[in-house]
Design goal:
2 domains, two-stranded antiparallel ribbon, mainly alpha
Length: 279
């Protein structure tokens, strides 16, 4: 077995003479561990930083395929961490151009078949640590939003996919920043110049319709989650977005939302329904 403790303490340098694909496979197997010290504290940071540094360039196709399998078939902790790690692969391809359009769109289809239907939405578990299906999925959505592989129709699909996830609450009220992560992902989609002023607001229509038909009584989790996410998205539209750049480990330049005005007005129109007194 690889001495991962030594790697973590040694600036995550690749061990001399080690076969990178074998190390990647070992790390992917560790992502399926129920032990958060193995999965979250070791496998995730090593794999993420190696992807960002280009250590796994030339192996992104196989790595992504392996992660898609985990996202579809693994236990909840593997599903969610596979989705988050897939985001790093997609972001790396946006820099290197290593993958094909067909490959990335196939992964998007796999992600779309999992994320809005996941019913275990716990953010934190006392034994398993972070699970965070909504937040980790939002990270994947944000990565897809930055991919040059996606078509105009794919981008529209990302907005609808986020709406699907918001409206399928599984009885879970966001408690660990999921609304912020999802708003960040949505704002990233909205920075794409291919989208028109109509495109960036159309996905809100069914959310607005669902709120309009709400009945008196306790606020359902999906409605509370959606209101908070839209409020955060309003701020992103106003201030712009800074993307995390894995290769340099910091935030990049400010990217504006091209149709910020229509986005903000559409959000405000929706939030006026549950928020009394909103101007």
């Amino acid at each position: 077995m690889t001495d991962w403790g030594a790697i973590l303490s040694g600036d995550l340098a690749v061990p001399a003479g080690a076969a990178v694909p074998d190390l990647a496979e070992e790390l992917c197997a560790m992502l399926a561990s129920p032990d958060p010290a193995i999965r979250d504290d070791t496998a995730y940071p090593v794999l993420a930083i190696w992807i960002g540094r280009g250590v796994l360039d030339g192996h992104l196709d196989g790595l992504g395929a392996r992660l898609v399998t985990g996202m579809r078939q693994g236990e909840i902790y593997e599903r969610t961490f596979a989705a988050m790690m897939l985001s790093w692969v997609i972001l790396r391809d946006a820099k290197t151009g290593e993958l094909s359009d067909v490959t990335v769109c196939r992964w998007l289809d796999a992600f779309a078949s999992w994320w809005p239907h996941e019913e275990d939405l716990r953010g934190w578990d006392s034994q398993l640590g972070w699970l965070h299906a909504v937040a980790h999925g939002a990270d994947a959505l944000r990565a897809f939003a930055r991919s040059p592989r996606l078509s105009h129709e794919n981008l529209l699909g990302l907005l609808e996919l986020a709406a699907d996830r918001l409206m399928a609450d599984a009885g879970y009220l966001f408690a660990h920043g999921e609304d912020d992560r999802l708003a960040y992902a949505l704002a990233t989609v909205l920075t794409r110049n291919e989208l028109s002023a109509t495109d960036v607001t159309r996905w809100l229509r069914r959310i607005t319709a669902a709120i309009e038909t709400g009945e008196p009584g306790p606020v359902p989790p999906w409605a509370a989650n959606t209101s908070r996410t839209l409020a955060a998205l309003y701020i992103f539209a106003d201030r712009g977005v800074r993307w995390y750049e894995p290769d340099i480990g910091t935030l990049g330049d400010l990217v504006p939302v091209p149709h910020a005005g229509p986005v903000q007005e559409a959000i405000a129109s929706t939030l006026r329904l549950p928020w009394r007194g909103l101007g």
